[in-house]
Design brief:
323 residues; Peroxisomal Thiolase, Chain A, domain 1; five-stranded mixed beta sheet; four-stranded mixed beta sheet
Length: 323
Amino acid sequence: MPFSRVIGTGGYLPEKVLTNADLAKLIDTSDEWIVSMTGISQRHVAAENESTSMLAEQAARRAIESAGISVESIDLIIVATTTPDQVFPATACLLQDKLNLHNGCAAFDIQAVCTGFVYALGVADKFIRTGGATRALVIGAETFTRIIDWTDRRTCVLFGDGAGAMILEAADEPGIISTHLHADGKYRELLHVPAGVSTAYDDVLNGEAYLEMQGSEVFKFAVNALGKTVDETLAANNMDQSEIDWLVPHQANIRIINALAKKLNMPRERVVITVNRHGNTSAASVPLAFDEAVRDGRIQRGQTVLLEAFGGGFTWGSALVKY
């Protein structure tokens, strides 16, 4: 049975930057309050004519270039997104066409909100390990600002848009060491959009399907769940926390990141942090942060990296990667 390893990464952020000062002109808030509560100073916002598949395409092309492969060699596409272009086809199929990849490979979406990329990575790894694919394009892409209520200062300061990608291929030695995926739907109303195709569809049509979040409850559950997932990941691989070279957490809130780093006894310089510049880009946040740290030389080949995320559902999970 083969393993899977990461051979290329890519990321893309829309051109428009929305700063805390910009938000202070729209709602009753301030840069000082936002930074102190979240660690966020700015976020990127997709232009009106930019779709999720367009962001995904840019990240995908950069990952393909960094891997030094041909598009035609990809035989699986998985896109993690909460904000697809259309009800159907899947954003992965739209991306497949944008890449001019017409070899008949499987292409589908995964929806696990902010944990989406970790879920997608786990699924792609299983495809490769079982011989279902030899080279996979895995993407987290979001135009999350489209489902934000810009009058709600508790949520609108948190989120941004972007896309991040990885190329996985079959290998003799493990690159994706293990993945650990979890969910519990009983907490769904603490972080959700209470409308969809089969429920309150009029709200969707009227552009009133916005994210709702109970921040303090989400924070407490996230810190506890992610802490347990760290323990689970280390125990499953008979590893000590000192053997982790880098932590690449979901970029939701600097306080959650700090709490997890403390549990791992991970010094700040070993934690990849982009939340201050990207905000919470949901499924895109982990691959965007990973790509940035690879490209600036922090994450090196042979190092062990722990990816973790938490999202609506609730969903949460981790991936242990030997880069």
